[in-house]
Amino acid sequence: MIRTLLAEDMHLVRGAIVALLAYEEDIEVVAEVDRGDRIVATACAVQPDVAVIDVGLPGKDGLVAAGELHEKLPACGVLILTGVGTPGLLRRALDAHVRGFMAKDAPPSQLADAIRRVSAGERVIDSEIAIAAMTPPDAPLTARELDVIGAAAEGASVSEIAASLFLSKGTVRNYLHRSTAKLGARSRIDAIRIARESGWI
User: Fold this and answer.
1) Cα 175 to Cα 30, 139, 160, 180, distances in angstroms
2) Coil, strand or helix: which one is 58?
3) Which of 22, 77, 80, 171 lies at 20 to 30 Å from 16 by C-alpha?
4) Strands 2-7, 50-54: parallel, antiparallel or unpaired by DSSP?
5) Are strands 2-7 and 124-125 parallel, antiparallel or unpaired?
6) Tens digit of pLDDT for each residue in 126-169?
7) What pLDDT, in 10s, does the model give residues 122-134?
8) Are 88 and 127 in contact (CB under 8 A)?
9) Among residues 119, 79, 84, 76, which one has the least CA distance to residue 197?
10) CB proximity list for 70: less than 8 A, separation 6 or greater
11) Which residue numbers delimit the Response regulatory domain (predicted)?
């Protein structure tokens, strides 16, 4: 029996997945959580073979929780479910030692098969997401704007970016402002998120 933990905040979706997996003779859902910050503690308590985790969870991002889970319970395979697969998201998942990455709209039979394969130590990645990861969309930002936003993503201050790229602080602020506007982002942090998930930085 493959002991499975399910982390999904949408009650209807979580209930549907549990009902679906109930038909599988070799898979048992041993725990359900609706927040990312409950994953590790719950997993330590129930010792699942596989954790099926939604990316967008309240409390803690699903990929952050997946990385922490790998540190605490490396034998537990993680299968990430996502509504939108992007190259950056896939890279983050692989960095978090995730074994499976699939779209939420995949056929139900694929979920059970993915859980079995992840439990067996295989890597399972949705083919469409993998193809998208190899061909990220063209960035609307210039090379210099990407340099600046990439440095900001690493936590560098405006002064530090200016010094490292031999620019004035005003120019750095202009690049950051233009990048945010071009990406339709709400803030600099949101612009960094968009650039990362698109695979540009």
Assistant:
1) 49, 14, 14, 9
2) coil
3) 77
4) parallel
5) unpaired
6) 877 776 666 666 778 888 999 999 999 989 999 999 999 999 99
7) 999 887 777 666 6
8) no
9) 84
10) 76, 78, 96, 97
11) 3-119
